[in-house]
Backbone:
């Protein structure tokens, strides 16, 4: 009887051990995405961006909140070795920090930064990777995970937030500027010859407007805004709106070239 009782007790113990192991395996497996699932990703190259530290901080906060909810509360701060990392750089220095709290180190950040990267790596999560890598050469946004719907939602949210906060790059490049300069130069010469040969002094507005446009082309700020800059405060007014205002003035001056040919005749006919 005693032997039978010991045997039954051993069986119960063995069952309890196997049951406990099964529970542990199930719990561990539930924390990991199934290897048979496909990994979805979205990547895009963004246009020029002009952002402030406050802008990028809000965007990182929104990203971290979305990732936390998508991953059931599992974040880089509560148990992932790779976690979140930030790099802010200018032409001389680079500052690395962990987490996504950029403004907590505002005292050591440069007033203007030409490079920025934020990486969030959570291999155990539904959203596994978030990357924002911005510089003058390129501006790339990347999101990956095991849920196509959540990857798409996070990607669209980040892309829209970045473009709404700091789309830049208005202006004219060197090639277009050179073409306009040649056009104004030859227009001024040809219109001046026309006035002299045809004895049309009332049409002198044509060469005058052409020369005025040529001067404005090399004095007003027409240059493209930087492809990427991160500011500690609001970007300078001339950086944000200087090229737009300059283009509007130049367009009015160029429009004055043909208008000045007809306007004097109407005034003289009265």
Residues:
């Amino acid at each position: 009887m005693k032997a039978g009782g010991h045997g039954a007790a051993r069986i119960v113990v063995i069952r309890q051990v196997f049951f406990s192991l099964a529970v542990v395996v199930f719990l561990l497996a539930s924390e990991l995405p199934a290897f048979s699932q496909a990994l979805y990703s979205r990547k895009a190259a963004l246009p020029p961006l002009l952002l402030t530290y406050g802008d990028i901080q809000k965007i990182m906060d929104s990203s971290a909140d979305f990732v936390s909810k998508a991953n059931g509360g599992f974040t880089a701060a509560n148990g992932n070795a790779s976690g979140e990392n930030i790099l802010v750089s200018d032409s001389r220095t680079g500052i690395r920090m962990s987490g996504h709290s950029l403004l907590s180190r505002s005292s050591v950040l440069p007033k203007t930064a030409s490079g920025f990267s934020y990486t969030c790596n959570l291999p155990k999560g539904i959203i596994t990777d978030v990357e924002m890598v911005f510089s003058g050469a390129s501006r790339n946004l990347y999101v990956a995970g095991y849920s196509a719907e959540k990857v798409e939602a996070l990607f669209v949210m980040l892309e829209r937030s970045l473009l709404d906060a700091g789309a830049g790059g208005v202006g004219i490049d060197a090639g277009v500027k050179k073409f306009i300069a040649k056009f104004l130069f030859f227009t001024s010469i040809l219109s001046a010859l026309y006035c002299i040969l045809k004895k049309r002094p009332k049409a002198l507005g044509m060469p005058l407007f052409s020369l005025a446009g040529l001067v404005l082309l090399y004095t007003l700020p027409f240059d493209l805004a930087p492809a990427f800059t991160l500011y500690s405060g609001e970007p300078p007014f001339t950086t944000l709106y200087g090229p737009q205002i300059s283009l509007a003035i130049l367009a009015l001056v160029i429009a004055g070239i043909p208008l000045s040919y007809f306007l004097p005749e109407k005034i003289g006919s009265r």
